[in-house]
Amino acid sequence: MMYFWVASLVLIVICAVFIFLPALKRRENNDQVLRDELNKAFYKDRLSELKEESNEGLVEDQQDLINDLKQSLLDDIPSDKLQQRQQALSPWLILVPSVLLMGVLSYALYAHFGAAQQVKAWQDVTNNLPELSKKLMQQDGAVLTDQEMQDLTLGLRTRLHYNPEDATGWMLLGRIGLANRDTGTSVGAMKKAYDLKPDDQDIQLGYAQALMLSQDEADQEVARNLLLQLTKQDYVDIRVFSLLAFDAYERQDFTSAIKYWGVMQQMIGPNDQRYEMLTRSIDNAKQQMSGSKANQASVKVTINLGDAVVLDPNAVLIVSVHHANGSPMPVAAARYPVSSFPLTVELDDRNSMLESSKLSDLDSLMVRVRLDSDGNVATKQGDWFGESKVVKIDEPVNITINQQYP
């Protein structure tokens, strides 16, 4: 704030100089001197004319005319009172109030229309940035209030505006995005930090954590690779295994999730209060794994082409599982690119069409296979197809595509 006052005072002084400069350069009594010089010149010229006129006999009372000329010269001299008034009217009486008025009016207009309070708040936040940054680094933003988050974001953006090569600043901004579940901000900021310092383990971890929030499978795969690279370091942060375990659990890879949680238990020891929580997570994953194995059902289908079939390389293979009564609405379906035949595919509950009707709920079923040539599943004209007989849920299915829709 001190810089504002100094800068504003300097501007006022410069304006005052421009106001004072014309008055300081003005010569005192300049008008009176010019008038006196002009009157003297006029008086001398008139005396010369009277002398010539007298020699020529044109003037009779030369002395009277000279006296009148002297009187005219005396009448043109300003009176003492007028000179005193002119001397008393000092330019400072105008200049000083003008400068004061300019200063008061300038500050008053800024106080009304300016943003002094906002600027002061911004400067206070910038000065408080180191303390807020330290708090965020220690607690991962868990104890920061909403206002502190806003202040920290403002301060960091100001700092990064003037120093865009600050990798730590970008990492902190990314952590704020993580705390606010702002995927765009967190991924963008962490990527900038990673581009600046790709070997920094804290930045690698933060970038992976941000990418885990993305809905893009490619981003999540990059995050997994970063985390797996971190597991090969001499020192591994426990959060690396926590993220890997969470990701594996979300992907229903319960075996990997159990392995990572077990590693975390070894790192913290049984006396840590988190040990029991990890035990419960492992037990839950084991239950999920045993339940999915017990209830999991799948249908393995082997597909052959009939001799009369002309294979369109742009066609798509559609495999659908139906109720044993041949209902046209499939229970499960999947689409595959055309490749070499015979071809074996496997469908399970992940291919179910409805949550309320799963493949594992069937006791018996039939399978239909079709080569869709136009990319529209609703049209069948000219498509080749085949279907199986009714089989049990655990029986393999063999189908030959040898029929064509008219």
TrEMBL record:
Chief localisation class: other
Alphabetic keyword roster: Cytochrome c-type biogenesis, Membrane, Repeat, TPR repeat, Transmembrane, Transmembrane helix
Pfam families, per the entry: Ig_CycH, TPR_CcmH_CycH
KW Transmembrane (keyword) present: yes
UniProt subcellular location: Cell envelope
Domain Cytochrome c-type biogenesis protein H TPR: 118-275
Repeat in keyword set: yes
Transmembrane regions listed in the UniProt entry: 6-24, 89-110
UniProt domain Cytochrome c-type biogenesis protein H Ig-like: residue ranges: 299-402
SUPFAM superfamilies in the record: TPR-like (SSF48452)
NCBIfam families: cytochro_ccmI
Protein name: C-type cytochrome biogenesis protein CcmI
Designated gene of the protein: ccmI
